[in-house]
Amino acid sequence: MSQATLRVQKISGHSGTVPGRDTQREYTVCKLVDTTTCIGCKACEVACVEWNDMPFSPTAFDNTYQTMPETRWNYWNLILFNEHEREDGSLQWLMRKHQCMHCAEPGCLEACPADGAIVQYTNGIVDFQQANCIGCGYCITGCPFNIPKFNSVTKRMYKCSLCTDRVSEGLEPACIKSCPTGCLHFGSKDDMKELAEIRAKQLRDHYGYDKAGVYDPPGVGGTGVIYVLHDATQPELYGGLPSNPSIPLAVKFWKHPLKWIGNLAMVGGLIGLFVHYLKFGPKAREESDIASKEGQ
Amino acid sequence: MNPRGMVGYHPEQLIPHDHILRYSFKERLNHWIAAGSFIYLMLTGLAFWSPWLFWIAAVLGGPELSRFLHPWIGLIFFVSVCYMFTLWANQMNFEPVDKEWWNSIGYYIRNQDEKMPPAGRYNAGQKLLFWSFFVGGILLLASGLVLWFTESIPWSLRWIRYISVVVHAGTALLMIGSFMIHVYMGVFAERGAFGSVIRGDVSLAFAKRYHPKWYKEIVGESDRSK
Amino acid sequence: MTNGWVDIKNADMILVMGGNPAENHPCGFKWVIEAKRNRNAKLVVVDPRFTRTASVSDYFVQIRTGTDIAFLGGMIRYAIENGRYNKDYLINFTNAGFIVDKDFKIPEDEDGVFSGFDEQKLSYNRASWNYEGTGGKAPAAAKPGQPAPLPPLPERVNFDSTLQNPRSVFQLLRRHYSRYTPEMVERITGIPKDKYLKACDIFTSIRKDGDTKKVATMIYALGWTQHSFGTQNIRTAAMIQLLLGNVGRAGGGVNALRGHSNIQGATDMAGIFDNLPGYLRVPVPADGSFQGWMNRITPTQSKPGDWTSFNYWGNTPKFAVSLMKTLYGDAATKQNDWAYDYLPKVDRNYSWVNIWDNMYNGIVKGMFAFGMNGVMIGPNTNKNIDALKKADWLVVGEIYPDETSEFWRSPGITQDEMKSIQTTVYRLPCAGFAEKDGTFTNSARWLQWKNTALPIPPGCRSDQGIVAQIFLKTRELYQKEGGKFPDPILKLTWSYTNPNDPSLAEVLKEVNGKTLVDAEDPATKQQLKAGQQVPGFAWLKDDGTTTSGNWIYCGSYTEAGNLTMRRDSADPSGLGVHPNWGWSWPANRRVLYNRASCNGDGKPWDPARRQVWWNEATQKWVGVDVPDFKVDSKPSEHMGPFIMNPEGVGRIFAPLGAFADGPFPTFYEPVESPVDNLLYPKQSHNPVVRRYKTPEDKYGSPKDGYTVICTTYRLTEHYHYWTKNNPMNVQLVPEPFVEISEEMASEMGLRGGERVKVSSARGQYIAKAMVTKRIKAMNIDGKKTYQIGIPIHWGYRGISEDDGRTAKTPVNLLTPTVIDPNAYTPEFKGFLVKVEKA
Fold first, then answer.
1. Pair B1, B215: CB distance under 8 Å
2. CA C5 → CA C27, C34, C238, C440, C576, distances in Å?
3. Is C717 in contact with A38 (Cβ distance < 8 A)?
């Protein structure tokens, strides 16, 4: 898809303005994952693999129901299983659908040096454009959620695309369609946020989960995937969901202050040296010095 | 005679028309390997550094190729810098005279070289450059390896990646700064210096002016006579 | 199910026990989530493991496998003690007030068995398990050498509406479960008393303070059925639901989650030896004639004098004659007793485990196995493999080489042994589910037609095509060569347009049935011409003028067309009835016994969820669902809602021949158990369960070192034994494992991923250990007891197996040949093993 359209609002590694910036009329889309009704059936994992025609890769027994430890270049969507024992001895088996969060302020896009390798559409979807990807892996460092993964054969990075190909045609993402319990919902961010808050309130009022809430981290400007959690004060219980994610400080420092300092230093340096040459010229030719001194 | 007892040291020869052979063939070749690889690294690195310079990668064979070759060329650069270390490291130790040299840096900038304390084969500035490139090379290699094999760093140790992106970019900037000064000095400011890494020789006058102590050693005058 | 999948969303309270629907019925489980999301419904889960269903429950209790009757019996006691039941419903819609025969004794008085137990024969004389009353049809005369026939149910039953009579069903019930105290339940099940009481409190809270509006459902699966007392597990659940008044109500009922997409269809169409299609009981030799058969299997009314009972099974002869006319057409006439002689008479038990036992003993010579991996299903896989070695021939119809078709090279068989096996194995490549049309009948009794999605690959054939070929060839041979009794084959109707590969649409039409003469419905005045499809089973007659291959499916393919193909998702009532989506039996009713959703006056217990009700103006029962009732029977007639019972009411007490092991469920230990029966020390196990007697039928006990309890189950990611051939499923869960508690693992010095060997008295299973918090050690009567769990899905052929990543041991090498005495289901869910590092 051409990036010179109104539908692209951010482009990685891009010099100059982005044609679609601040032109948004449509709403941003949002995937709501209600972890309190997820039964870990993995229909969403299978739907993602099927829709995107991903080749199978070897998996091994790892003392868990979780299919594999992390997402892969060919496995973008993974249910994380975590067993926790409460103080009263009762058990919690938390299941969280783990995939790209489609941050409003994406760390991957921020870190990416390749022009057009990562774009953000005005509907909020953050999409890797493999044609422009150079496989440097900076997006791995930029992402607070450990999502982008590398394919060593094609040398490209891959992640969940929020089924942008389906969404562009007015369809819901494949995972949403396949979820049997209706734990996944899809719609505008406002609608999903509202639905999530209603569910969180129901959990607090009727199910004894007094800390239930919605996970929509402000540190990345909010995300295109939001969670309803039984305990919104402890997101780490859900397979290491960071409680206050943001673009890593190192990346922010590198792309902003250091960028300014470095560019100024380099340009300043060049200018400085040129001015030095203008003012002081080269060092004196040594032969005449010697000749005059030694009297040769 | 081999006054310094260094391995691989070629005793400087006085050669016709009042020149001294300053750099052997191996030294010069290695220098250009380092220089060439550095220039490639710097250009591709700048392409990755700034979207405004990303076109550089396109000119150098494409962004994907640039990303692929950058770490390999980086290894070449590092190996050549290590060779430089074996050649010159023990000539680069900071001595008391270097402190004086730094204090007189103002004269050096104003091209009043006669007011500088006598430098040996390498003056303090050159020594600083050497160590900058060596230490910088190590930092770039270490951080570069982390960036090259980013996926090998587990999520639990991601702080290593964060440090690496800053160290790699920051060190590269310092190296570019050093490079700019080095090229300026070698091509524009110190006439005759450029030839030393092409043909290998400098004139006696050059040696006397810029490295008086070294000059004296070459022509045999003792250190006591000034 | 008495109710349906979508109907679950109407529940206020859901008990999942003996089942794991989140994992094994994830799509159906959505309706439990809907109930939670939309009605604040609460979910209670009771299971030996903390499953994915438990992970979304509101209260979870871990139970020792096989002790469900102790749990549920204790809940009956709790409900009665705390007044948590619908008294009105209980008195009027169940047999709680019926007086029972004075000779009837409960196990409390009889050392753990009911009255009438014969220790020699290991069976009951059930004559005392009867109501007290008068009248009733005379029993058939006793035949020499045959067991004495049961006395009849009395036509007029003595009744006490106060429920105080000590011989009323209610007081007997109370006495029977009075010993199932919370302390006893704790000792048996391992559930701490406070947790147990909380579970009872939560579930029965729907009837707190006399509330009759709320409704609770129970959903279960093989965790209840796969025991040597499986049928009684379900009985206890049914009794609780009757006590609480939940049967017949939207969001209530007793709901079995079937384990395969069309197993409901299989049982409806009599894929079992002791039924004919539509659950007609098969004829036995003692019947002697069609009339004798009808006399035995057709019930007559039995109820208090002033009540009415529809006794719909009283229409059995209409269904039976219509079936015979379907099977034999003009060859079945009144004169020849409707071709009664052509039907096989079932002289003994030919159930699944018996088939393999018979094969092992040389009685069964050959087997057709269609999409049925008998060696893997077990129980006691080694016995099944050895049985096949003795068979003359085996025909396997499958879509890939499965373990049964490869039994002759199962692991451990040597080359020499292979050479000595004389069984001829035929492999017929069949069509897969996406290549076949026809109906699937789901747990909710909905028949849904499916079209083929893909063509059958060249060289493969449809199931009906294969069966047709076999039949036509057999018929041809009988025509040519004659035989001892060729008529049942020669006279069988086979009038399909393409006899070699009958269209299933034509078969469904045949199953629905038609009228052979012009007919008129007296009530509606609707007219049918000869040869037209009948609109429902009310049209079926016993005079030979109608046909129907399965009376409960009658109405699915009428003159209006194939109703199973309908896909109108409209649900005007919002109760999930969807009356025009597919077709549900019987008569497109979605909730059975729905008259019970109203009180005695015909007014719904909960008007917000009204399903059917009495319309005073039209003097009819009307509703958003088809009334499961005689529509013009006034409430004052006191007709019972449970129209399929001779009493017309629900059976708290199941009289006479209903069950082999008792009219009330009684707690017995699984046949392999680490403890004796604390409730009935003199009778640890189900008294009528027999053990098999071949050398391979070994049974383990704690003194042989088998002290760990083992259960088996399925995962979401795999489906029985065929997804191990599918890369997608294998990617999700590649290797077999054994779930072991953390305490047990630390005692053994075992880490997750290490191989373990699990052995029972019958075989060994080797796989990696999954060390988990989700199964805890249990305190069974003061003794620390461990349970482990094993998913079934791997064998000795498949992607991981062929890659050498597994030990190639099917889990049913471990399971015992022990079956439920009513439904003959094997006890896969609770047996003894020992666990060692491998």
1. no
2. 9, 11, 18, 15, 9
3. no
Average confidence (pLDDT) over A15-33: 88
Parallel, antiparallel or unpaired: strands C831-837 and C755-759: antiparallel
The share of chain B scoring above pLDDT 70, in percent, equals 89
What pTM value is reported for the model? 0.93
State the pLDDT at residue A285. Answer: 67
Both structure tokens of C73? 């019996």
Residue B44 has pLDDT above 90, yes or no: yes
pLDDT of residue B96: 86
Confidence check: pLDDT of B4 > 50? no
Up-side HSE of residue C665: CA atoms within 13 Å toward CB?
31
Strand partners, C713: C791
The shortest C-alpha distance from A202 to chain C (Å) reads 8
**pLDDT of the residue at B19:** 77
| Residue B187 included in any domain | yes
Choose among C27, C731, C773: nearest Cβ to A59.
Answer: C731
**3-state SS class at C544:** coil
The residue count of chain B comes to 226
Domains of chain A, residue spans: 8-247, 256-295
For residues C822 and C230, give the distance between their C-alpha atoms in angstroms, rounded to a whole number.
8
Residue C380 structure tokens: 């006691």
Number of domains in chain B: 1
How sure is the predictor about B226, in pLDDT bands with cuts at 50, 70 and 90? very low
Alpha helices per DSSP H over chain B: 25-49, 55-59, 63-88, 96-103, 105-109, 124-148, 159-183, 193-196, 204-210, 212-219
Give the span between the Cα atoms of C397 and C422, in whole angstroms.
20
* Other beta carbons within 10 Å of C568: 10
Tell me if B38 is assigned to some domain: yes
Which chains does B contact via 3+ CB–CB distances below 8 A?
Answer: A
Residues of chain C with pLDDT under 70: 110, 140
Q: What is the mean pLDDT of residues B65-92?
A: 94
B131 is a domain residue:
yes
Chain B and chain C touch, per 3+ beta carbon pairs within 8 A: no
CATH topology of domain A8-247: Alpha-Beta Plaits (3.30.70)
Please list, residue by residue across C747-761, b when 16 or more beta carbons sit within 10 angstroms of its beta carbon and e when fewer do: ebebebeeebbbbbb
The DSSP letter of residue B150 is G
Q: Are B52 and A113 inside 8 Å of each other by CB?
A: no
Residue B46 within a domain:
yes
The DSSP code sequence of C425-491 is: EEEEEB--GGG--EEEE-TT-EEEEE--SSPPPTT-B-HHHHHHHHHHHHHHHHHHH--SS-HHHHT
- Write the single-letter amino acid at A220: V
Structure tokens at B13: 């020869």
Query: Which tokens belong to A152?
Result: 């060593």
| CATH number for position B44 | 1.20.950.20
How confident is the model at residue B148, as a pLDDT?
96
First to last CA, chain B: 22
At A296 the pLDDT is: 40
Query: B159: domain range?
Result: 27-90+127-191
Nearest CB neighbour to A273, from listed B51, B113, B180: B180
**Residues C698-733: tens digit of each pLDDT:** 999 999 999 999 999 999 999 999 999 999 999 999
Mutate to test the interface with A, among C14, C16, C25, C37 (most CBs of A within 10 A): C37
CB contact under 8 A, A83 and C774: yes
